[in-house]
Amino acid sequence: MTDKSALFDFVVALADDALVLGHRLSEWSGHAPTLEQDIALSNLGLDLIGQARLFYTYAGEIEGAGRNEDDLAYFRDQGQYRNLLLLELPIGDFAQTMARQFLYSAFLEPYFAAMMRSTDVRLAEIASKAVKEMTYHVRHTAEWVIRLGDGTEESQKRLVSALDDLWCYTGEMFVETASERLLVTMGIAPDKAEIKSQWLTRVGRVLTEATVETPRDGRMQSGGRSGRHTEHLGHLLGEMQVLARSHPGAVW
Amino acid sequence: MFTLAATDTDVDRELARALVVAGDVPDPEIPVVTLLDLGVLRGVERRDGIIVVKLTPTYTGCPATVAIRLMVETALMDAGFGCARVETVLSPAWTTDDITERGRERLKEFGIAPPENGARLTLFGSETVTCPRCASTVTEKISEFGSTACKALWRCTSCREPFDYFKCL
Q1: A31 CB-side CA count, 13 A
Q2: What was the ipTM of the complex prediction?
Q3: Is A124–B91 a contact, with Cβ atoms under 8 angstroms apart?
Q4: What residue numbers bound the domain in which B110 lies?
Q5: Cβ distance A74 to A241 under 8 Å?
């Protein structure tokens, strides 16, 4: 593996994470329980899609084969997508959406904070921009996790069920790929071992405040980073890519 | 914050004029403030005879970015600069502290509470936001995310009016 291909793999994975989760959030537009939450979820999605664009554009430049952000987003199939499985799962109910968003934002915020010190200037720049947005995501979703857990019997039941369903997908956030390992030694990618303890502390604190138990680690699912996905990603990509593929090269 | 890269005085004068033209472009979503007020203008250069305007985005996914780019290019063309180019600069990342005093005044007159200077968000931290209408500080947050990426929705418990708050970033 060359340094260049490792960096490309790493940046594409960051972009895929942001795009897939951003697209999932966009499914709430016009469907959220209240107008304020509808706008909030769309805004979270917008931030992620903005981050995806920055990462895809950079990945295209690293590759140097003339692919732009749209080529990478719309003209790769599911086997070429490198996003975490956690992020491609259907939105479920409001509790599932908020639980996933919290579990992931609580990881991404310290991850971007660490990436601000990357020896890769471009990644450090993107991280210093994106970390500010993630701070809002963590706060907003943590507040909802607490509200749902420490709310009614029904809301707590749904939150607990969401956490139980999602927990086995959280392990993949901390799995280091071969590309990442190389980039960590070069000071380009953050070390996930350090992020994990921060994540556990933060998640534990919020779940305690939400009066629910932190699920126990069991067998963890993984595969997204190597292109082995759940059936859900294909459906998501089908819907997201159809327009661009029906009219390749279209501009307006 | 502005950089005027140039070699001789005539070019300097042209670049200074281009900077004024670009800086006067209103924000498409909050037209009471200009790009200069917002602090997103990072400088103007001339490269290979073409004016290059450097802008920094407020939020990575802000849809106004595309509109702003077009508006700057059009404004420069109308001012006789021919084909100008807009370049995105990410670093240093934009912060609401970059909004000028004049920008803050204009936001307030428009009914948007300007960001509290230097205030930074902490998990579960609380903010004090002043009502842009009656100046009361007895206000409460309705939603962290408002009508645009950069605003939150608040309500004044003194005058009962809801208002937009330009979030700290």
Answers
A1: 11
A2: 0.79
A3: yes
A4: 99-166
A5: yes
**Are residues B54 and B123 located together in one domain of the fold?**
no
Backbone angles phi, psi at A161, to 5 degrees: -65, -40
Helix H or strand E segment including A156: helix A153-166
B77-106 pLDDT, tens per residue?
999 998 899 999 998 889 999 999 999 999
CA A247 and chain centroid, separation: 28
Query: In this complex, is the C-beta atom of B93 within 8 Å of any C-beta atom belonging to chain A?
Result: yes
Q: What is the mean pLDDT of residues A217-238?
A: 96
pLDDT for the residue B125: 59
**Closest to A60 measured CA to CA, from A17, A4, A108:** A4
**With an 8 Å Cβ cutoff, is B162 touching chain A?**
no
Q: Is there a domain that residue B93 lies in? A: no
Tell which residue, A93, A99, A89, A94, has the closest CA to residue A160: A99
CA-to-CA dists, residue A191 to A114, A175, A184, A197, A223, angstroms: 8, 10, 6, 11, 20
The sheet with strand B162-166 has its strands ordered as B112-113, B162-166, B151-156, B139-143
| Same-domain status, B10 and B82 | yes
Same domain, B12 and B71: yes
Task: Give domain A3-214+225-246's CATH number out of 3.30.70.330, 2.40.50.100, 1.20.1730.10, 1.20.1260.10.
Answer: 1.20.1260.10
Cis omega (within 30 of 0) for bond into B92? yes
Place of tokens 């903005």: A50
Question: Which B-chain residues 142-161 have CB contacts (< 8 A) with chain A?
Answer: 142-147, 149, 153
- The answer to whether residues B12 and B84 belong to one domain is yes
**Cα B128 from Cα A135, distance rounded (Å):** 18
Does residue B68 form part of some domain? yes
Determine, for residues B61 and A128 on separate chains, whether the beta-carbon distance falls below 8 Å.
Answer: no
Mean pLDDT value across residues A97-108: 98
Same domain? B32 vs B81: yes
**Is A50 within 8 Å of B57 when comparing Cβ atoms?**
yes
Domain count, chain B: 2
Please report, for the domain that includes residue B57, its CATH number.
3.30.300.130
- Neighbouring CB atoms inside 10 A of B28's CB total 14
